[in-house]
Specification:
Elements lengths: L9 H9 L24 H12 L19 H10 L11 H17 L11 E5 L2 H22 L8 E5 L4 H9 L3 E5 L10 H7 L4 E7 L11 H15 L5 E4 L7 H4 L12 E7 L11 E5 L11 E3 L6 E3 L10
Parallel strand pairs: 2-3, 2-4, 4-5, 5-6
Antiparallel strand pairs: 1-7, 6-7, 8-9
Helix pairs in contact: 5-6, 7-8
Bound molecules: pyridoxal-5'-phosphate.
Pyridoxal-5'-phosphate binds next to helix 5.
Cofactor: pyridoxal 5'-phosphate
Keywords: Decarboxylase, Lyase, Pyridoxal phosphate
Catalytic activity: L-glutamate + H(+) = 4-aminobutanoate + CO2
Length: 327
């Protein structure tokens, strides 16, 4: 026989039961969806409503579609929570966070074989992901090209960028937002990455850079950056242009150096002037973090760097947003 034991609630128990979120009047009335309600609701009811609604999202651990990391070690979760209330814009207040970001930039630059001497600092910045990194890299190429064209007294109103038709949508975004024509090399049956021969043929005097992908979004295939570098160097020599290369290593930047250390795709190739990488892909961290690294100082026009001093000392910044989290 099963005996059910019923406990007396007592005063405290009764108060707790009366305050139970699901029994409270807050949850008995619908909360307006698209406007502020007339009355406030308690914080525990608000939490419960949002928490329950989020149950309808799928579980990130089951989501393989967006290629981002969905699990980190518990110690990382702890560190993230400890830093979640810091605004990275205020580098004076958070000098250690700033130092950690600088270390990441330097470690990644050296991993990608940037020509950084001992004790020298690499040039780069942490971003929300590869899309922001690509916007910044693209802007640097555009400005550098415009400056050169101005100096030479040539028109500078029709910049273009050459990519494969397999590029991720962020390149189309960059082109549309920053008014640069996107010249895409068509893919062909059985060949689903940018053909370097065809890409170099499409380069003209208005090309601000050729963008190669290390880890094509749809197949993961690496483009042949070394061949692209050689063909472009020959064309640059012939034409006296100096069209550079950007490598979109969003997915492959944290794979190639470890699995294929001999493969030359990075700053070992002289025309590679900038590289982006996403931390949240094979860098094994949650979205969103990425980086863009420049080969050296000359590749990032000084006028794109803002110097902000109202929070304390001079802070050089080159990001699209001002405030952002530190995690
Ligand atoms: C090759 C490539 N570039 C850029 C991006 C955009 O990266 P993020 O999501 O970090 O902005 C992706 C994302 O899938 C990608 O695969």
């Amino acid at each position: 026989m099963v005996l059910t034991h019923v406990e007396e609630l007592g005063d405290a128990g009764e108060a707790a039961a009366a305050a139970a979120v699901f029994a409270s009047r807050y949850v008995q009335e619908p909360v307006p969806r698209y406007e502020l309600g007339e009355r406030s609701i308690s914080k525990d009811a608000a939490y419960q409503i949002v928490h329950d609604e989020l149950l309808l999202d799928s579980s990130p651990r089951l989501n393989l579609a967006s290629f981002v990391t969905t699990w980190m070690e518990p110690e990382c979760d702890k560190l993230i929570l400890e830093a979640v209330n810091k605004n990275y814009a205020d580098m004076d207040e958070y000098p250690v966070t700033t130092e950690l970001q600088n270390r990441c930039v330097n470690i990644i630059a050296r991993l990608f074989n940037a020509p950084v001497g001992d004790g020298e600092k690499a040039v780069g910045v942490g971003t929300v992901g590869s899309s922001e990194a690509i916007m910044l890299a693209g802007l640097a190429f555009k400005r550098r090209w415009q400056n050169k064209r101005k100096e030479a007294g040539k028109p500078y109103d029709k910049p273009n960028i050459v990519t494969g038709a397999n590029v991720q949508v962020c390149w189309e975004k960059f082109a549309r937002y920053f008014e640069v024509e996107l010249k895409e090399v068509k893919l062909s049956e059985g060949y689903y990455v940018m053909n370097p021969e065809k890409a170099v043929e499409m380069v003209d005097e208005n090309t601000i850079c050729v963008a190669a992908i290390l880890g094509s979004t749809l197949t993961g295939e690496f483009e042949d950056v070394e061949r692209l570098n050689d063909l472009l160097a020959a064309k640059n020599k012939r034409t006296k242009w100096d069209t550079p290369i950007h490598v979109d290593a969003a997915s492959g930047g944290f794979v190639a150096p470890f699995l294929y250390p001999e493969l030359e795709w990075d700053f070992r190739l002289p025309l590679v002037k900038s590289i982006n990488v996403s931390g949240h892909k094979y860098g094994l961290v949650y979205a969103g973090v990425g980086w863009v690294i420049w080969r050296n100082k000359e590749d990032l026009p000084e006028e794109l760097i803002f110097h902000i001093n109202y929070l304390g000392a001079d802070q050089p910044t080159f990001t699209l947003n001002f405030s952002k989290g530190t995690t």
